[in-house]
Amino acid sequence: MRGGLVALPSLLLFLDLCCFFIVSASTKQDQVYVVYLGGHSGAKAGEEIHEDHHTLLLSVKGSEEEARASLLYSYKHALNGFAAILSEEEATKLSERREEVSTFRSEGRWAPHTTRSWEFVGFEEGLRGPDGSDWLPSGDKSGGDVIVGVLDSGIWPESRSFSDEGLGPVPARWKGVCQGGESFSTSSCNRKIIGARYYLKAYEASYNALNTTYAFRSPRDHDGHGTHTASTVAGRTVPGVSALGGFAAGTASGGAPLARLAIYKVCWPIPGPNPNIEDTCFEADMLAAMDDAVGDGVDVMSVSIGSTGNPLRFADDGIAVGALHAARRGVVVVCSGGNSGPKPATVSNLGPWMLTVGASSIDRAFDSAVKLGDGMVIMGQTVTPYQLPGNKPYPLVYAADAVVPGTPANVSNQCLPNSLSTEKVRGKIVVCLRGSGLRVEKGQEVKRAGGAAILLGNPPAFGSEVPVDAHVLPGTAVTAADARTILSYINSSLSPTAMLGRSRTVVDVRPSPAMAQFSSRGPNVVEPHILKPDVTAPGVNILAAWSEASSPTKLDGDHRVVKYNIVSGTSMSCPHVSATAVLLKAAHPDWSSAAIRSAIMTTATTNNAEGGPILNGDGSVAGPMDYGSGHVRPKHALDPGLVYDASYQDYLLFACASAGAQLDRSLPCPARPPPPYQLNHPSVAVHGLNGSVTVHRTVTNVGGHGARYSVSVVAPVGVSVKVSPRRLSFARTGEKKTFKIKIEAKGRSGGKFLAGSYAWSDGVHVVRSPIVVLVA
């Protein structure tokens, strides 16, 4: 199925095995298909387009009544196409029509990719003003006329993060609506939330009528994910907030606190034993939302959603198609990269016309000391508000030594539901390992079996990355190295014990940022000549607003209510970059979406806040396959010096070369389109280098008059990189210059991607581009 989000209210929120979405539950012979017809010529009105779509449907349906009943959506603002309920035979017939670009099933394989973070972004800028006014978003006065559309699970409008106090009138160009529904009236919108819609026709075509016990039939958020992402990108500055238990206390703010929000609810609970945990999103619904968002007048689209399973070719990828046509209209589309790392080739949202974001840590921790019976003290992390009674040691047991008979050996240490023996864990601290299942559900299992607390350890793959959770009992989490130390102590002691200390919020943790191990990695499996992800941003333990209809763990039986919650995932990093795009759109309203994407990428940094290289969560040095161009720096991006621009026609030619895909019938593919790596992109990736290639790039001066740039190169090991000319002079702003990059293999790469970079500098600006090469 093809529906999903990317910071799961379940997945990265509490889940380690990041993507286990189930295929469509529909057993009907007819399915929802998207029929993509390319772009609009602009000559027809919306009603005419709708009738054209109806006529196409009539060519395969038995009657006009049947054709009208089968049509779910008619896409008429940004892209040309429609969604309809079709049989496989009818879909095949439509795919043979001359007008058709692609016809694909709308499935549920898409899902969401689940305070201090913006302050930390300032540290990465190298800006440490005494009062923070140089770089804190709360001090930013721009963005008030910029509209950001958020595709997600809806919004909790009563949150203080969405107050419209002090905001001016809604921008006159806004054409959207505030769609009422269950527990959501038109008065739920204001000068902050200026529009809201919801889409579930494809969802209900697959799962039948929505179960309103688990979701509101309206833009209101029952899940929490959408509220969290919306407040991260554009939440107002709210002092005195914290997560459950008082953790991460301080001032919450979105990156663009004056920007306007337009909410497009496209993600809904998957029916099953615990619908609270998993949401799904269908392409037909998402495309309708993206099409409306462009017609409504949004400037930036924030999409913390990605596909599960094997990535789709661009012509069959709903988000890629929608983003392409949004970019054509100047809308910047920012997407999460996924939570399936650290395994390579797992990144999603792969089109070069969208900005794909990885996740990294910030400099905040929630320290909780673990004192073992032998006197050793280990520092864990937790945001659970519960404490073990009495300042005393408790017996310590390893889950694998306390399971019920019949528990599979390979998951005996996972504390999966109903796996623990009450007799063996009652009153004890239970050591469980991450890996399979939800982290918070492991704590629930320990509580069910009568355990006193959970001590959650990382497996080796997760290294020192410790996402925190508001467990339903006392507990803490530790790194992989500390988990090994604890298990060694248990094995060497006849009566192992431990004490869990009270947790406290600690800031200025170093080194930071580090790449999250869960963050999906490159290479780009659809088109390896485009580097993905593009950048990284804060996505670990992020505090933001939450739905008061959802508990902090989302588990059945957890009835706690919170206004703000701490969540991890690339869904959290995506809105950080969306906010950066908002600030650039406010400062440079005439820039194209490609120019804004370029500015964000070429000003990103590959260094941590201490000046050393960004590391992965396991301690290894990170590279372009982990973070793309580097960690986002919003203030630097406002003044990039040079940008790499690209047009809609450039992207169509790229698609022709990449997969022979003609994405718009108005522009036929040439017999020999330029290779994919010739797209004027801010990064360079060459896959299967045999001998040498010459890559062409064009930069546009967006700085001052009389700018003079020279280039510096860091060549990948075993590869020669020569840039010519080595100097570029610009007489005026807006002037373009073209240069060549000759890349030549000097040896074999051993099947590994080799990384380097080149950078243009005028003494003020540094315009850096990563180079990634795989030698044949």
UniProtKB/TrEMBL annotation:
GO terms for biological process: proteolysis. Residues 678-773 form the Subtilisin-like protease fibronectin type-III domain. Residues 144-608 form the Peptidase S8/S53 domain. Residues 395-485 form the PA domain. The keyword Hydrolase applies. Keywords: Glycoprotein, Hydrolase, Protease, Serine protease, Signal. Pfam families: fn3_6, Inhibitor_I9, PA, Peptidase_S8. Residues 1-27 form the signal peptide. It comes from the Eukaryota. GO terms for molecular function: serine-type endopeptidase activity. The keyword Protease applies. Residues 32-102 form the Inhibitor I9 domain. Belongs to the peptidase S8 family. This is Subtilisin-like protease SBT5.6. It comes from Arundo donax (Giant reed). The lineage of its organism: Eukaryota, Viridiplantae, Streptophyta, Embryophyta, Tracheophyta.
